Amino acid sequence: MDKINSPIPIRQRDANFLPLLWLWASGNVLLASFLVGSYYAFDLGVAGTIWISITANAFAYIICALSCQKSARYGLDEVVALRPTFGMKGASIGGIIIFLITCGWVGILSSMTGSASTMIMSDHLGVAGFSGDYGVYALLIGIVIPLLLIAIKPSVGFKLFSVTAPIMILFTLYMLWRILTTNRVELDGIEQGATLFGASLAIELCFAYAIAWLPYLGAWSRFATSERSAYWASFLGLAVVGTLFAIVGGLATLITGELDPVVWSTQLGLGISSLMIVILGTITSVALLVYSASSAIVSITRNISFRMACLIVAVPSSVLVFSTSLQELFDFIMLFVGLIVGTYWAVAMCDYFLVRHQHIDVTACYDENGPYRYRSGWHPQAFVAMAAGCVVWLFLGGWMSGASWISFTLGETLFSYLTASLPAMLVSAGAYWLLARHQQARVLQASRT
């Protein structure tokens, strides 16, 4: 077994609550996290933005915290931990999902970093622009530095997160204080109220943005000294920061009318704070994501070194920095998360908690001919259950894609009451539980005869 993917015995783990807390807090300290609140602020007003940001994020991150328990208990990387559910080969689909979504996120974060750094360095620090400055900032801060940190020694990440996370949170609290104290009149004058449809869209966005963390939890939670510390660190680190950033982004957008965090931070005189978040947040978040994706690649291939896997993630991510619009890429990732990520990991969580009752065979996770081989390495029931959830998501949320062939009037109407991602996950989990129960009944009956 490759060392990067071998199970980590509990006696060899050294990440207790605080290092894990700063790790997940750092992961959510992003300009993209501001965008979540900005997207629904106009529809909800001040009170609605604050209320939905708190409640929707809290609920969504509870699910994320539960998902990390398997790796925290058994010390398994995320892809390896998926093998009992999807099969030795079927778990590779999870690894591919992690790789694809990581390329998208790194592309988004690097792109935002390039644009923000160029604007803020010029407007606030007086640094003259130069030819190719966007690309230099985007690639250097968004890809090169994080890649070097992770490739040299992944454990450096914990030390880095423990230093940068408190600093970035303080900057964000300062931004919130400035917004509330210097723009009180503007906030009081904003009309309150929200439509049911607008609230549902806000909940869906918060939920999808939160569960996008599901693929990354295992790679880092396997270093946890206990399941308890892994749970509360992931929940508090992600939820508190995610909520804070959504509220700050939403209120700033209501005051300025701008969605872009760089633009509204400049208008509100918060450019320096924004620049610090851009630099530190991008480095730490990309390092976290690249490590998880690289571990997934090693799990799938088993003959590629960890550092080579880092390069495999970095190359397509670099291309995305220059080849697509930030808005389109962000929207696509949110749709991808609801349709694919949510349903895939819902099946895995159901299998672990409700079917296996948190017991898996660690040795079998590495045995090609063991009990997790199923049918030639694939577990059909798991993918059938996932497909059932995908159908539900397409019916309820397909209209968000803009494609007429998956846009249903009744589905859009029901979306106002149900949203899309959570029902799809529940259907996938429920379908898998029913299929597992049916299979268990058949096995029991066969054993009696």
UniProtKB/TrEMBL annotation:
Lineage: Bacteria, Pseudomonadati, Pseudomonadota, Gammaproteobacteria, Oceanospirillales
Superkingdom: Bacteria
Keywords linked to the UniProt accession: Membrane, Transmembrane, Transmembrane helix
Protein name: Purine-cytosine permease
Keyword Transferase: no
Residues annotated as transmembrane: 21-42, 48-69, 90-114, 134-151, 158-177, 197-218, 230-256, 268-292, 304-326, 332-354, 382-408, 414-435
Main location: membrane
Family: Belongs to the purine-cytosine permease (2.A.39) family.
Keyword Transmembrane helix attached: yes
Membrane topology of the entry: Multi-pass membrane protein
Localization: Membrane
Species of origin: Billgrantia zhangzhouensis
InterPro entries: CodB, Pur-cyt_permease
